[in-house]
Specification:
mainly alpha; rod-shaped; about 100 residues
């Protein structure tokens, strides 16, 4: 007596097809994640360069500000504007009112 099993090969083909499709999907996901990682690294490098540039600009602006508000410069400006230093200043405090 011979037993015929026609669906046996079809099950193996279906399994191989599903495993192949799963492998392709996993491969595509890995490639996508790798691309996103590379893009993120490049963006981070650009942001670091921008940050360094902004730090230098900030230091220059602080230097200019501190030069402008230097005591010598303020006294010179007061002299040019004809201001005199008050020897006995009268302070008005907000707590008195």
């Amino acid at each position: 007596m011979t037993i015929i099993q026609p669906n046996k090969n079809e099950d193996i083909r279906r399994l191989v097809t599903l495993l192949t499709m799963g492998l392709v999907v996993v491969f595509l996901v890995v490639v996508f994640l790798y691309m996103q990682t590379v893009i993120s690294k490049h963006d981070l490098a650009k942001k670091r360069n921008t940050l360094e540039t902004l730090k230098v600009e900030n230091a220059e602006l602080k230097n200019n500000f501190y030069t402008l508000v230097d005591v010598g410069n303020l006294e010179q400006l007061a002299g040019e504007l004809g201001l005199v230093q008050d020897k006995n200043p009268q302070w008005a405090f907000a707590s008195r009112f």
